[in-house]
């Protein structure tokens, strides 16, 4: 799995089992640092930890202290409990300093859950906390410490998500029409996906270009007279354009966090040694979803002590579209010699009847090692399969079932393959007056009004550094420049001249007459509102961020919002004006909540709003119990007494996109990941599971009325596997 990577020699170095005990550690105390908590305190924590009994397999994970470990943990087998017990055992029995232990996972929620479970056991005796972190957070800290190695004065800022669409759209313009056409109906989404995948494979634009040329050469050699297949590295020019724009703004995207951290660790041996020396133990949760970049990073960090514990379940690998590669988990012991392999197979979550159907389903996978999860709870109600004549009929039944089942609402989940075609269910829940939290993926793409308004707010806050704000305003607002003017401005930007210098300096005279007028109007507007937004000026004038924002939006869209009639609804521009009003009200609400705690600026508002976008799938407030409405991907890591899986129809799951690949091998691979997703959905249920199917809109006007193939597979164990 690790050919051609710098860590290959380190991770495959001969690993000798540690049989000689040195002191209390099992190996050199200079490698594992001893904590100095009183023995009485450690004993008290150890007793609390051991009071939650572990089964033999879980105990085996805890008892193996040194060397690489691979833990295959099926659904509901207590992996988080086991990992926390393992961490506390190292601290209380082997006296490892808590900060010397690193536990990595993929979401902030998962990291917080582990941290909270740990604290619940060790407090108040132990104050220190291990590093419970996501990969991106860990790599962000490496950038904090060492970004100068890559030529940054300070850690580069992550580009705001609202600007990425503009960057991708601009990048598409650097590609040939044929390349864009080859990206299908949604070229922006396809290019963004490819860039993310290439970064997860640790490929720079230059390396992608080399691979593109190599593929083209092989196509010519092997298929000279035939039609060559699509080159998977097409779009490298778009990647280069996108990255050049990020670099010119001294910014990075989220995927760059890991790519840049890898560049730092592999370019300066002293820094690699320093980072390796931070931890004596590294644990990785949900390891089946690890991509190449993440695996390389964690392998580099653990290459010296080799105390690397990975926990996961290939049957729950559902993130290939994000670069997750379950094969990394499957072949882990080949990369790490003397790996201890432990299987957790006892499911404490679901009844035996649910586990049986889930085992039947997953047995149809063709590329998995035979294994079964065993239920700790015998019997149980058989999962029910329900077929409806319409989505409306299905929705009514689901709402009535949730209202009458007798379970607390917060113990009920309605799970769908995706959230785009499920309005009938939401309407039925509202008809029954059932409160629900919608965890389905929201459309994070901003409207034109929001994107341009927020870009203007960015520019107002600090014009000299508002690179991406001006990038957008000069392309998609009333200040948009012509193509020739844009090319000229980008040429100046490539020379390190900021947009603000271009707009306000002598260089603006080189633009066309129309470009000069727009540059002057935009810079004057920004200058005026920048002055008004200064905290000292606002303190004297009693001005507010909300009032300034409202006036700025009026000038940005003078044709639909006048100072005399802010609330009027012009029929032609009703939607835009409504969106402007929403932004204004949002700022008013934010300003009222925050004004007592800090100095308010447009930057603090935009950071707050970015935060809201990042947690938009989470419940806003605690209070009235509500049922959960979520996608299969969002349901990962959850459990509910009652689960209703809606629209389990062919073309929905497995999705139409998984079924339409012209390459049989790719189709098989895609269907198997969809089967993993079905397995995840089923195993969220503790007591009752209902699987519903109904005629569903699959793709625009295509309607498929057949139940999913997975329904049959739930009832029939595949004897061949």
Features:
single chain; about 725 residues; alpha/beta; 6-stranded parallel sheet; 31 helices
Describe the protein's architecture and organization.
The chain is of the alpha/beta class and 721 residues long. The chain is globular and about 80 Å long. Helix 12 packs parallel to helix 14 and helix 20 packs across helix 24. The strands form five sheets. A six-stranded parallel beta sheet has the order 3-2-6-7-1-8, sandwiched between helices. It has a six-stranded parallel beta sheet with strand order 11-16-15-12-14-13, covered by helices on one side. It is built from 31 helices and 18 strands. The N terminus is likely disordered.
Mean of residue pLDDT? 86
- State which percent range the strand residues make up: 5-15%
**Strand count:** 18
Parts with pLDDT < 50 across at least 5 consecutive residues:
1-27, 615-622
- What is the 3D form? globular
Residues in helix, %: 40-55%
The helix/strand class is: alpha/beta
Distance N terminus to C terminus? 25 Å
Count of DSSP H/I helices? 31
Strand order of the largest sheet: 3-2-6-7-1-8
Sheet with most strands = 6 strands, parallel
Indicate the radius of gyration in whole angstroms.
Answer: 28 Å
């Amino acid at each position: 799995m690790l050919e051609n990577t710098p860590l290959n020699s380190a991770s495959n170095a001969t690993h000798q089992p540690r049989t000689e005990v040195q002191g209390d550690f099992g190996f050199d105390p200079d490698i594992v640092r001893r904590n100095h908590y009183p023995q009485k305190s450690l004993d008290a924590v150890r007793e609390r930890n051991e009071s939650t009994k572990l089964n033999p397999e879980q105990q085996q994970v805890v008892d193996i202290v040194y060397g690489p470990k691979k833990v295959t943990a099926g659904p509901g087998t207590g992996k988080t409990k086991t990992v926390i017990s393992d961490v506390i055992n190292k601290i209380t029995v082997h006296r490892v300093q808590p900060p010397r232990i690193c536990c990595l996972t993929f979401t902030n929620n998962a990291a917080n859950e582990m941290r909270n479970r740990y604290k619940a056991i060790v407090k108040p005796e132990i104050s220190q906390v291990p590093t419970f972190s996501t990969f991106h957070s860990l790599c962000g800290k490496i950038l904090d410490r060492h970004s100068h190695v890559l030529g940054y004065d300070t850690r580069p800022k992550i580009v705001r998500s609202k600007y990425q669409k503009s960057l991708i759209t601009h990048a598409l313009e650097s590609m040939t029409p044929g390349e864009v056409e080859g990206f299908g109906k949604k070229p922006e989404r396809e290019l963004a996906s490819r860039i993310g995948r290439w970064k997860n494979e640790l490929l720079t634009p230059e390396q992608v270009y080399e691979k593109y040329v190599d593929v083209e050469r092989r196509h010519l050699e092997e298929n000279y007279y035939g039609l060559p297949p699509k080159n998977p590295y097409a779009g490298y020019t778009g990647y280069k354009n996108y990255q050049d724009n990020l670099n010119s703004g001294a910014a990075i995207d989220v995927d760059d966090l890991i790519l840049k951290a890898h560049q730092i660790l592999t370019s300066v041996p002293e820094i690699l040694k320093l980072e390796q020396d931070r931890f004596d133990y590294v644990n990785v949760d949900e390891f089946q979803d690890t991509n190449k970049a993440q695996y390389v990073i964690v392998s580099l960090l653990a290459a010296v002590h080799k105390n690397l514990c990975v926990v996961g379940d290939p049957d729950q690998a559902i993130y290939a579209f994000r670069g997750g590669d379950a094969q990394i988990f499957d072949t882990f012991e080949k990369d790490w010699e003397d790996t201890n392999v432990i299987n957790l197979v006892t499911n404490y979550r679901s009844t035996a009847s649910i586990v049986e159907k889930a085992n039947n389903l997953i047995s149809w996978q063709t590329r998995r090692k035979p294994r079964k999860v065993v239920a700790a709870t015998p019997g149980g109600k058989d999962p029910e399969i329900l077929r409806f004549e319409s989505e409306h009929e299905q929705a009514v039944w689901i709402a009535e079932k949730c209202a009458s089942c007798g379970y607390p609402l917060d113990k009920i989940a309605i799970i769908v393959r995706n959230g785009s075609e499920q309005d009938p269910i939401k309407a039925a829940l509202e008809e029954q007056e059932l409160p629900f939290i919608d965890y389905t993926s929201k459309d994070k793409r901003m409207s034109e009004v929001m994107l341009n308004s927020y870009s203007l707010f960015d520019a107002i806050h600090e014009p000299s550094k508002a690179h991406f704000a001006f990038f957008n305003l000069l392309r998609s607002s009333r200040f948009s420049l012509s193509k020739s003017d844009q090319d000229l401005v980008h040429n100046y930007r490539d020379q390190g001249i900021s947009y603000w210098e271009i707009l306000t300096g002598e260089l603006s005279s080189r633009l066309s007459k129309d470009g000069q007028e727009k540059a002057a109007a935009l810079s004057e507007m920004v200058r005026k509102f920048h002055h008004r937004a200064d905290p000292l000026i606002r303190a004297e004038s009693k001005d507010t961020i909300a009032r300034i924002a409202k006036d700025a939006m009026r000038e940005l869209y003078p044709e639909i919002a006048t100072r005399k009639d802010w609330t009027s609804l012009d029929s032609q521009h009703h939607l835009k004006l409504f969106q402007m009003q929403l932004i204004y009200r949002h700022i008013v609400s934010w300003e009222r909540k925050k004004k007592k705690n800090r100095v308010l600026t447009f930057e603090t508002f935009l950071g707050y709003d970015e935060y809201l976008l990042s947690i938009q799938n989470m419940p806003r407030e605690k209070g009235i119990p509500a049922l959960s409405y979520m996608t299969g991907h969002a349901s990962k890591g959850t459990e509910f007494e009652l689960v209703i899986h809606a629209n389990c129809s062919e073309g929905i799951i497995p999705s139409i996109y998984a079924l339409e690949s012209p390459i049989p091998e790719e189709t098989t691979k895609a269907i198997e990941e969809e089967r993993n997703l079905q397995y995840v959905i089923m195993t969220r249920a503790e007591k009752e599971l209902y699987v519903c199917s109904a005629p569903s809109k699959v793709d625009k006007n295509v309607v498929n009325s057949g139940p999913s193939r997975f329904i049959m597979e739930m009832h029939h164990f595949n004897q061949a596997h």
